[in-house]
Write a structure and sequence with these properties.
The complex is a heterodimer of chains A (879) and B (110).
Chain A (H helix, E strand, L loop, with lengths): L8 H10 L2 H19 L3 H14 L11 H24 L1 H29 L11 E10 L6 E3 L4 H10 L3 E17 L2 E10 L3 H4 L4 E3 L11 E5 H8 L8 E4 L2 E9 L12 E4 H9 L15 E7 L5 H16 L5 E9 L19 H28 L1 H13 L4 H39 L10 H27 L3 H6 L10 H33 L10 E5 L5 H8 L5 E7 L10 E5 L6 E9 L3 H4 L4 E4 L15 E5 H6 L5 H4 L3 E4 L7 E9 L14 E5 L7 E6 L4 H15 L7 E3 H7 L2 H35 L1 H9 L4 H35 L11 H28 L2 H5 L3
Parallel strand pairs in A: 4-9, 6-8, 15-20, 17-19
Antiparallel strand pairs in A: 1-2, 1-10, 1-11, 3-4, 3-10, 5-8, 6-9, 7-8, 12-21, 12-22, 13-21, 14-15, 14-18, 16-19, 17-20, 18-19
Helix pairs in contact in A: 1-3, 2-3, 4-13, 5-11, 5-13, 5-14, 5-23, 11-14, 11-16, 11-23, 12-14, 13-14, 16-23, 16-25, 16-26, 17-21, 23-24, 23-26, 25-26
Chain B lengths: L7 H13 L5 H12 L5 H14 L2 E5 L12 E5 L1 H20 L9
Antiparallel strand pairs in B: 1-2
The chains are: A alpha+beta (879), B mainly alpha (110).
Chain lengths: 879, 110
C-alpha cells in the first residue's frame, strides 16, 4: 500500500514541543487518524483542522513542565566547573598564558572597534524627531564626464519648490554652509564659522536654544545665533541677545544663544546666520545663480515628514520636479533623493558633506581586519585545547560515569573557555587603554570622535568576551563531550582524538597566511607612500613656504617680507597643486562647440620661476593683473593642453587667444604666453588632465609662496609671523612648507601602513605563540619516539628535521596561499585606483614572508633542539 | 459528596468504554458516542474527560500494539476499573430508584 503523506512536519513539531511525553504518542496518533479522515475531503482542510487541533490540545494537563531540574544541576555544578577550570588553567601555565595573552591582545582591538562603532552609531540620535527627518541628496551627471557626483548638498530651488507646491511634510528647512565671518563687538574680534539657516531650524532639530525665541530668531535678515563658547569670547559676561555685532561692512543682531553643538551631530557650527540675509542679497540680482536648479553645491534641505508619510512618496515628487527641470537643458542631469537623518553618519560616501562624515566602507574594512585578528587568537585556543584534550579525557570519563550528560560536559568546557575569555578581557582592558590614544589620533582622526568611555561599554565588553569564549571553546568542547566514558577509562591510548589533526593544520596555515598577508600589506603601503612623496612632480616644492593670506593685501605683505634676507623669491597663487585640491574650468579655442575641461591655478607672473616649471616655449606673463582689471588677460598652458588644442609645436600656441567659458557672462579671451612641460597638478591617484596657469587678480590669490633659504627656520618663522601680526589681527599666522602639504595629502597611506604594521605585529605574535604551543605539545608527546630514535643512532640534525618538517610544510603552504592573494588584493583593490603606483615585485612580497619564516623557524627549532638534545636515558629509564 | 457522583458526560463515556470492550480508544469512543447519542462530540472534550477519569481511578489505560495507520503510533486503550464499575452501578441504581417512584400517569400519551 502506498504510504499516505501525513500533516506538515512543523505542525507535528509544535505538539511535540509542548506535550508531555507520556501523553504525546497516543494523542498525536489520534490527531493523525483524524487527519487522514479529513484528507478524503481536501488536504488544505485537513491541514487546517490539524493545526487548530494542535493548538486546542495545548492545555494545562498536556503541557510538559519546563526542565528546571536540568538547569539547577548546572548552577549547582558551576562551583565545581569553576574550580576545575581554574586548576586546569593553573596547571598548564604555558598553554594558559598563550591563550590568555593571545586572546587579550586581539580582544583589545575588538574593544576599540566596539567603542568606535558604538560612538558612530550615536550620531544624531539626540534629535527628538529623528525618525521623521530626511535630507535631500543630489546626483549630478554632466554630459562631459562619465562619473556622476553624489552630493549631500542640494539646491535652494528644490527646497522652495517642495515648500510651495508639495505636501507630506511639516517643515522644510533650508541651510547653506560656509558662514564665515570675523565678528566684532567693540575691541573684541573673533572668527566664527557656521551656516545659514531658515527659521525651521529649531522645529526640525532638537538643538538647545538657551535664550531667544526659536520661532523668530532666524527670521529677520542679518540675525545671528551664537553658541555659548563664541558668545563668551566676544561678550565675556554680558547678555549677548539683542546686541549688535559688526562683520566688516555688515552688521548682525544677536537673536539667540545656544549650548555647544554635541560632538555626535553631523552639523557642526559656532554660529548660525539667518538665511534671509542671503535671500535679501540675491533676490533682486538678476544675474544671481543662487535660486537656480543647478546650484546644488552649497545648500542643504531637510524635511520633517508628517507622521505616516513614507519617504518614497516624496521621492516621487522629487523625480517629477527633476524630470521637468532636466528637460530644459542637455548639458547635465540632476536627480534628488531623500536620505534619513540616521543614515547620514555613518552613511554613504557623499561629497560636499555639511559636517563630519564616516562612511560604512571604512567601518567594514576596520571590522574585517579586526575580525581576522580575533579569529586568529580564537584558533590558538581551539588548537591547543584540542591538542591537549587527552589530558582532560579522564576527567570527562569520570564525569560521564557519575552521570553527566553530553550537554553538561559540553557546557562545562564552553564555560571554561568563557572564563578564560573573561580573564583575557581584564588584560585586554589594559591594552585597550594603552592603544586607544594612538587609534583616536591616527586612525579615527576626527575631532568629533573622542571615544569617551561610557558604562554601557562594560556591558558590551562582557558580551563580547562571552561571545569570544564561546567561539573559541565550542570546537574542543564538542570533541571532548563526545568521548565515550567506556573507551576513555578502559584504554586511553586507543582514543581517536586526532581526527582533529587536519583541522588544526588548516587553522595554523590560516593564521600564518593572515600574518603574511598583513606584513606584505604593510610593506606595500609603505613603499607606495614613499613612492608618492618622492615622486618627481615636475616642479620644485623644496624650501617653499606657503602662507595663507585670509584676504589681506598681498602687496603690503610682499613688500615687508622682501626686506628679510632669508626670503629669496616670492610668488602668489590660488591653490597648492599636488595636494588633492582641484580647481576646474572650461576652455575653448577656435571651435565654439569644442570646450575642454581643464584644471587650473590662478597665479602671478613669478609663479613659474619660483616653482621652477619648465617652459617648452614662451615664458611667463608680461605683467600682473591690475587693481581694476576684471578679467585675466594671459594664460600659460601645459603640453597636454597644447596637444589637445592641436598645436603641432609648442611655439605655435604662443600668442593665440583661447576663451574661458562663462555661463552667464561673455566668454573671457586670454592670450597664451607660454607652454610648460606637464607637471603633477593632481594627487597621484588621479588621471592627469590638461592644466593651465591663469593670470590671477587680488581676489583669486590666496597664498604667498616664499622660497626660503635659512639655517634657522624657527627664527625665520618668528620674523615672518611678526610681519603677519602687524597686518592681520584676527586670523592666526598660517604657513606650512609645500613639501609637508604634499606629504600630508598622502597621509592616509601612512595611516594604512601603521594599521597594517600594527595588525601584522599582533597577528605574528598570536600565530607565533600558537606555533610555540603546538611545537611544545608535539615535542612533548613525541619525546619517547625521539629518545628511541636517538638510541638507535639518529643524529641531532636528523631529529630536528623530523620534528620540524610538518611545521615548515605548513608555513610553505601559508606562503603559497598568502602571496598571490595579497598580490591580487593590492593590485586590484587598494592600489587599483592609483594611476601612478609602484610595481609590486619580489622585493615587496618576499621580505615579509621571509621574516615570518625566520620567526616560525626559530620558534620551532627552540623546542625541537631542546628535544633532540635530551639524554635518552632520562626519558626511557622509567619504562 | 460531589466527587463520588458521575457527571452526565462522564457517565456516557464510561458506558461507551464498557460497551466497546477491548476496542475502547479515544477516536473509537468519540465515534461511538456520535453514533449512539447523535450528538457532535469533540476529541478534545473526550480526551480531557478520559484523562480526568483516569486520575480519579474510574478507568485504567494501556498502550496497544503499534499499527500502520497512525504512522506507527500506538493507541491508548481504556478499560473500566472496579471503582468505575461501582460508580456506574451506583448511578444506575439511583436512576432506577427514581424511575420506580414515578407514577405511570406522568408519561401517559408519549
Amino acid at each position: 500500500m502506498e504510504e499516505l503523506k501525513g500533516p506538515p512536519r512543523w505542525m507535528d513539531r509544535i505538539i511535540e514541543f509542548y506535550c508531555r511525553k507520556d501523553l504525546l504518542e497516543d494523542l498525536q496518533g489520534d490527531l493523525h487518524e483524524y487527519y487522514f479522515r479529513n484528507l478524503e475531503k481536501s488536504r488544505r482542510r485537513a491541514n487546517l483542522i490539524f493545526l487548530l487541533d494542535v493548538f486546542k490540545f495545548c492545555r494545562l494537563y498536556t503541557i510538559q513542565k519546563p526542565k528546571i531540574l536540568g538547569q539547577m544541576t548546572f548552577l549547582n555544578l558551576m562551583g565545581n566547573y569553576f574550580k576545575t577550570s581554574v586548576r586546569s588553567i593553573a596547571r598548564n601555565k604555558l598553554f594558559s598564558s598563550i591563550n590568555i595573552v593571545g586572546l587579550a591582545v586581539s580582544m583589545s582591538v575588538g574593544l576599540l572597534m566596539i567603542t568606535y562603532i558604538g560612538e558612530t552609531l550615536t550620531f544624531d540620535e539626540f534629535h527628538e524627531k529623528k525618525n521623521r527627518i530626511y535630507r535631500v541628496t543630489s546626483n549630478y551627471q554632466s554630459i562631459s564626464s562619465d562619473d556622476p557626483f553624489d552630493l549631500a548638498s542640494t539646491s535652494v530651488f528644490i527646497g522652495e519648490k517642495l515648500r510651495e507646491q508639495y505636501t507630506g511634510f511639516e517643515k522644510v528647512l533650508i541651510m547653506r554652509r560656509n558662514f564665515n565671518a570675523d565678528i566684532a563687538k567693540g575691541e573684541n574680534i573673533i572668527n566664527v564659522r557656521g551656516h545659514y539657516s531658515t527659521t525651521e531650524f529649531f522645529d526640525v532639530f532638537s538643538f538647545d536654544l538657551k535664550s531667544g525665541d526659536p520661532a523668530t530668531a532666524l527670521k529677520e535678515p542679518n540675525s545671528i545665533i551664537l553658541t555659548e563658547k563664541a558668545a563668551k569670547k566676544l561678550f565675556t559676561d554680558e547678555d549677548p541677545v539683542g546686541q549688535i555685532v559688526t562683520a566688516g561692512e555688515k552688521s548682525y543682531t544677536v537673536t539667540g544663544l545656544m549650548s555647544e553643538v554635541p560632538e555626535n551631530s553631523h552639523i557642526q557650527f559656532e554660529a548660525l546666520a539667518s538665511f534671509s540675509t542671503l535671500e535679501k542679497e540675491h533676490r533682486d540680482n538678476e544675474n544671481s545663480t543662487f535660486f537656480t536648479w543647478r546650484s546644488i553645491w552649497m545648500n542643504y534641505v531637510y524635511l520633517l515628514l508628517e507622521e505616516g508619510v513614507r519617504p518614497e512618496q516624496i521621492n516621487q515628487n522629487l523625480a517629477e520636479i527633476a524630470a521637468e527641470e532636466n528637460a530644459k537643458t542637455d548639458r547635465y542631469t540632476i536627480n534628488h533623493k531623500l536620505e534619513s537623518l540616521l543614515d547620514i553618519v555613518p552613511g554613504r560616501d557623499l561629497s560636499n558633506q555639511i559636517g563630519p562624515s564616516i562612511n560604512w566602507e571604512n567601518i567594514y574594512q576596520l571590522l574585517g581586519l579586526t575580525l581576522i585578528i580575533i579569529l586568529s587568537a580564537c584558533f590558538n585556543y581551539t588548537n591547543l585545547s584540542i591538542a591537549r584534550a587527552l589530558r582532560r579525557a579522564k576527567e570527562v570519563g569520570i564525569r560521564k560515569v557519575v552521570g553527566a550528560s553530553q550537554t553538561q560536559v559540553l557546557m562545562q568546557f564552553v564555560f571554561e573557555a568563557i572564563l578564560i575569555a573573561i580573564f583575557s578581557l581584564v588584560i585586554a582592558g589594559g591594552f585597550y587603554l594603552l592603544i586607544k590614544p594612538e587609534f583616536v589620533s591616527s586612525v579615527v582622526d576626527d575631532e568629533n570622535i573622542g571615544m569617551q568611555f561610557r558604562w554601557i561599554h562594560l556591558f558590551y565588553f562582557l558580551l563580547f568576551a562571552i561571545a569570544i569564549g564561546f567561539v573559541s571553546g565550542i570546537l574542543p568542547s564538542l570533541v571532548l563531550s563526545k568521548l565515550k566514558a567506556i573507551s576513555i577509562l578502559t584504554d586511553a591510548t586507543k582514543l581517536k582524538l586526532f581526527k582533529g589533526v587536519n583541522l588544526r593544520k588548516v587553522l595554523i596555515v590560516f593564521q600564518f597566511a593572515i600574518s603574511m598577508a598583513l606584513i606584505i600589506g604593510a610593506t606595500i603601503t609603505y613603499r607606495q607612500y614613499n613612492f608618492s612623496i618622492n615622486y618627481d612632480l615636475g616642479f620644485t616644492s623644496e624650501n617653499i613656504l606657503n602662507m595663507e593670506l585670509f584676504g589681506n593685501d598681498s602687496e603690503v605683505l610682499i613688500t615687508e617680507l622682501s626686506k628679510l634676507p632669508e626670503v629669496k623669491e616670492m610668488s602668489r597663487s590660488g591653490m597648492i597643486p599636488s595636494t588633492g585640491e582641484i580647481w576646474g574650468e572650461d576652455l575653448k579655442y577656435k571651435d565654439p562647440m569644442d570646450s575642454v575641461s581643464i584644471y587650473f591655478n590662478r597665479v602671478d607672473k613669478n609663479y613659474p620661476g619660483v616653482h621652477e616649471l619648465t617652459f617648452l616655449a614662451g615664458g611667463t606673463f608680461p605683467y600682473d593683473m591690475k587693481e581694476d582689471d576684471e578679467n585675466p588677460k594671459f594664460i600659460i598652458i601645459d603640453r597636454a593642453l597644447c596637444e589637445r588644442f592641436g598645436f603641432e609645436k609648442p611655439e605655435d600656441a604662443l600668442g593665440e587667444i583661447v576663451y574661458l567659458q562663462r555661463r552667464v557672462e561673455d566668454d573671457v579671451p586670454v592670450q597664451v604666453t607660454g607652454v610648460i612641460e606637464n607637471y603633477q597638478y593632481q594627487n597621484l591617484a588621479e588621471d592627469p588632465e590638461p592644466t593651465a596657469l591663469i593670470q590671477g587678480g587680488k581676489d583669486d590669490l590666496y597664498t604667498i609662496n616664499m622660497v626660503i633659504s635659512s639655517n634657522d627656520i624657527i627664527g625665520l618663522m618668528d620674523k615672518i609671523e611678526e610681519i603677519w601680526t602687524d597686518v592681520e589681527k584676527v586670523h592666526p599666522f598660517t604657513a606650512s612648507f609645500m613639501d609637508d602639504q604634499i606629504q600630508s595629502s598622502y597621509a592616509h597611506y601612512k595611516v594604512m601602513f601603521r594599521i597594517f604594521t600594527f595588525l601584522a605585529i599582533l597577528a605574528i605574535a598570536i600565530s607565533t605563540m600558537g606555533l610555540l604551543g603546538m611545537a611544545v605539545f608535539t615535542t612533548e608527546t613525541r619525546i619517547k619516539e625521539v629518545s628511541i630514535r636517538k638510541v638507535l643512532g639518529a643524529s641531532e640534525q636528523n631529529l630536528i628535521m623530523i620534528l620540524s618538517r610538518s611545521f615548515m610544510i605548513m608555513l610553505f603552504i601559508s606562503a603559497i596561499i598568502a602571496i598571490p592573494f595579497t598580490y591580487f588584493f593590492f593590485t586590484e583593490y587598494i592600489l587599483g585606483e592609483f594611476k601612478k603606483r609602484i610595481d609590486i615585485g619580489l622585493m615587496e612580497l618576499l621580505p615579509g614572508v621571509l621574516l615570518i619564516f625566520l620567526i616560525g623557524f626559530l620558534t620551532i627549532s627552540w623546542q625541537t633542539i631542546k628535544a633532540a638534545k635530551t639524554n635518552p636515558a632520562d626519558m626511557l629509564r622509567d619504562e | 459528596m460531589k466527587g463520588t457522583n458521575l457527571g452526565e458526560f462522564e457517565e456516557i463515556v464510561l458506558l461507551t468504554i464498557a460497551s466497546l470492550m477491548s476496542e475502547a480508544y479515544s477516536v473509537n469512543i468519540v465515534d461511538e458516542i456520535e453514533d449512539v447519542t447523535g450528538r457532535k462530540t469533540k476529541l478534545g472534550v473526550v480526551h480531557a474527560v478520559l484523562k480526568r477519569m483516569e486520575d480519579k481511578g474510574l478507568i485504567t489505560s494501556e498502550l496497544g500494539e503499534p499499527t500502520k495507520e497512525r504512522g506507527g503510533r500506538r493507541k491508548r486503550f481504556f478499560t473500566i476499573s472496579h471503582t468505575g464499575k461501582v460508580a456506574l452501578m451506583k448511578a444506575k441504581e439511583q436512576r432506577d430508584k427514581l424511575w420506580g417512584k414515578i407514577p405511570e400517569l406522568v408519561f401517559q400519551g408519549i
